[in-house]
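Retro notes (design track)

What went well: tokenization of the new backbones is finally stable.
What didn't: we kept losing track of which sequence belonged to which structure.
Fix going forward: every design gets posted as structure first, then sequence, in one message. First example under the new rule, 74 residues:
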């Protein structure tokens, strides 16, 4: 039996680069608690790996770096 052809309107899921909270904090040069606050307020999406580990989408972290002024908002 042949497998069905993929639907033309559905793109295959692209692999996502996932970072730890520590990696994101180092990339943005901020404390890990700052990253945790961004996950709580919904700015960054959290992917739960298991009961004790979470990961962040690296593309979202990079986008946040572009949106955040150097030295923080005052």
């Amino acid at each position: 039996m042949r497998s069905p052809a993929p639907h033309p309107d559905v793109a295959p899921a692209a692999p996502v680069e996932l970072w730890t909270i520590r990696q994101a904090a180092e990339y943005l040069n901020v404390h890990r608690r700052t990253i945790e606050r961004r996950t709580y307020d919904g700015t960054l999406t959290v992917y739960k790996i298991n009961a004790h580990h979470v990961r962040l989408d690296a593309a979202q972290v990079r986008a946040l770096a572009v949106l955040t002024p150097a030295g923080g908002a005052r």
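Added context from the reviewer: The mean pLDDT is 83.
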